[in-house]
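Give me structure tokens for this 122-residue protein.
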Amino acid sequence: MSQTSQRTLGRLNRHRRIRKRLMGLPDRPRLSVFRSHKHLYAQLINDYENRTLFSCSTQVEALRAQSTRGGTIAAADQLGRVVAQEAIKRGIQQVVFDRGGYQYHGRVKALAEAARQGGLQF
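Here you go.
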């Protein structure tokens, strides 16, 4: 029997509703965000070919050296910059932002704004 909380079930329902409309294409992949209590994870996904083009989290060595804790707004800002830098290096300028059912607030917002400042358009 699953012990999934009502909050998690609500987020998954919101995520399903959002994903009906969003699709990552080869020229405009989906920037998917997952937020845990301790860390943030971001992926660039091509849904047309079912491929993950790039993934990064606050657990990566380069980001751990800059911030001791991975679940902060400052860590989300750094992660957004790294994702934008890597996407531009791979020739990706535009993405579709998938907030994963989370509110566009706090760490999710910081990651998105840092990615925009890094040069991604969405």
